[in-house]
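[step 3/7] inverse_fold.run input=structure_tokens len=318
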């Protein structure tokens, strides 16, 4: 190789050399960036020994509190074992967060990589052709998502709420089975709000962690004295079911128009297309979950019972 060729390769080294990450003695090479959020990013990585691909979630921590939040997420992954909840392969921290010296640390979470991407990705592709999902496929997938939520809500000793259920937080396996992911928003299901300060703190957390177009109405304007429970997830499930039918949450459309999502959610406004392949029973399932008053909204067992009843009805008709 001539000197010029070697020089060119050396100059281009930064483009050819891939970043590698060592996690508890296992080396991974970064292949590409899969996504970024407000608190983290996710890369596609490959185990250099087995050549198996994984998703690597990195959470930047600017303080001790950030580290505690990241550790809480890791702990949720470790204890929440269910076929429809994503599995944590490995995890570690690098660096040390210290606001005094302006240092940061990073939490590294190795997770399974799902080539099919998320339910959001799948629905977006289907929306281009306007080819709706078959109602039986919707019900099958939705019941599996509900099974994951029931596992959280029934968890002992303390029930857990996910607080950010949306189509982008549901991965799809090669067989089309839904896998609930992103446990960073998980929290104790029942929260007693005592005073304006409590309410504002929880409202700020909801604004940061709960996607607006899937967020329950009681999380937009939290009362000074109230109880927030796991039925916030039921509202989000109603939005997910709507999206599985019509490709987007009912409040994505509101957001895209530039109208107030807050007002639309609090009013309980839900519009269904006039031309639809879905029955009034399916619309009724959505309305059943999108009950503005959280005290009148069903718990997950009632949701599963009603969806299962509709599934049985479909099987009888078939």
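[step 3/7] decode complete -> sequence:
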């Amino acid at each position: 190789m001539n000197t010029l060729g070697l020089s060119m390769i050396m100059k281009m080294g930064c483009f050819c050399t891939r970043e590698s990450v060592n996690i508890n003695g296992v080396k991974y090479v970064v292949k590409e960036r899969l996504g970024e959020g407000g608190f983290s990013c996710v890369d596609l990585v490959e185990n250099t020994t087995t050549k198996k691909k994984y998703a690597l979630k990195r959470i930047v921590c600017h303080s001790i509190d950030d580290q505690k939040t990241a550790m809480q997420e890791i702990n949720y992954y470790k204890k929440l074992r269910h076929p429809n909840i994503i599995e944590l392969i490995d995890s570690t921290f690098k660096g040390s967060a210290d606001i005094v010296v302006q240092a940061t640390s990073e939490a590294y979470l190795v997770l399974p990589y799902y080539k099919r991407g998320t339910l959001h990705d799948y629905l977006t592709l289907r929306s281009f052709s306007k080819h709706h999902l078959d109602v039986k496929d919707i019900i099958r997938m939705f019941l599996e998502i509900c099974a994951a939520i029931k596992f959280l809500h029934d968890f002992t000793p303390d029930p857990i709420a996910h607080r950010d259920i949306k189509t982008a937080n549901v991965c799809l396996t090669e067989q089309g089975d839904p896998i609930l992911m992103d446990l960073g928003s998980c929290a104790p299901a029942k929260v007693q709000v005592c005073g304006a300060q409590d309410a504002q703190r929880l409202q700020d957390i909801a604004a940061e962690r709960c996607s607006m177009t899937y967020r329950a109405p009681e999380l937009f304007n939290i009362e000074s004295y109230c109880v927030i429970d796991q039925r916030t997830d039921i509202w989000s499930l109603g939005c997910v079911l709507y999206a599985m039918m019509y490709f987007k949450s009912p409040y994505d459309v509101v957001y895209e128009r530039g109208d107030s999502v807050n007002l639309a959610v609090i009013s309980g406004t839900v519009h269904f297309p006039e031309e639809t392949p879905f029955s009034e029973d399916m619309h009724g399932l959505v309305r059943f979950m999108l009950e503005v008053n959280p005290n009148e909204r069903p718990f997950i067992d009632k949701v599963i019972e009603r969806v299962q009843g509709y599934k049985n009805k479909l099987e009888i008709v078939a």
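[step 4/7] annotate
The mean pLDDT is 91.
The chain has two domains: 16-112, 119-317.
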